[in-house]
Amino acid sequence: MKVKTILVSQPEPKMENSPYLRLIEKEKVKVDFRPFIHVEEVDAKSVRQQKIDLINYSAIILTSRNSVDHFFRIAEEMRFKVPDTMKYFCQSEAVAFYLQKYVVYRKRKIYVGKRNFSELLHLFKKYKEESYLLPSSDVLKPSIPDALNELGINWDRGIFYKTVISDLSDLRNVYYDVLVFFSPSGIESLLKNFPDFEQKDTRIAVFGNSTVLAATKASLRIDIKAPTPENPSMTMALQKYITSVNKK
Prior knowledge:
Elements: E1 5-8, H1 19-27, E2 30-33, E3 37-41, H2 44-49, E4 59-62, H3 65-77, E5 87-90, H4 93-98, E6 109-112, H5 121-126, E7 131-137, H6 143-151, E8 154-165, E9 178-181, H7 184-193, E10 203-207, H8 209-217, E11 222-226, H9 234-246
Parallel strand pairs: 1-2, 1-9, 4-5, 4-7, 5-6, 7-8, 9-10, 10-11
Antiparallel strand pairs: 3-8
């Protein structure tokens, strides 16, 4: 069956040259964006109840833009002036670039991975004397704390925000040819909002191994997968699939 409509379970990209725009123009498909999950704040009182005192840390581990925003929000709520000596370990260049919203980049000690958390591990080994804080959501890949514990470094996790399932009830009678997911939480949201969901002819696109696993556990048929050596991005995977099925 041809693909004419796609629902991406994330907010619409703000950049003007989004690869989704190129996909829309080239394949003449309709792409809608709707977050299946959203983030809610955890207040400073709740962070203190986790026995987190920001003065005890010399380095911050930042895995996402959300972790950046909520670390500095909590610091402000606690009236904690983040010292210039604070070190920042960012999972990707995108996170490091976003950090400039809060700090003067060239004056800070910022260490950057290429994309995956595992690419930061050699840096943690190099700076084993630091006291690390990992501000995170209540949902965290088990591989992250496992890796940090294995290194034997001094670190704490603080839940600074929560991942919450969005209300999608207005989509109950809306049909899309392809649903695109980027996290297990997105799959969970689909099933919580629509417990009677039947896939039928709907194609499921998933990004990342953990999302693949969640979709498989939910007995969903996976039609499009990324990243792969041939399709490192979701838009590339969608493009290849659409080109294949729409020309039949």
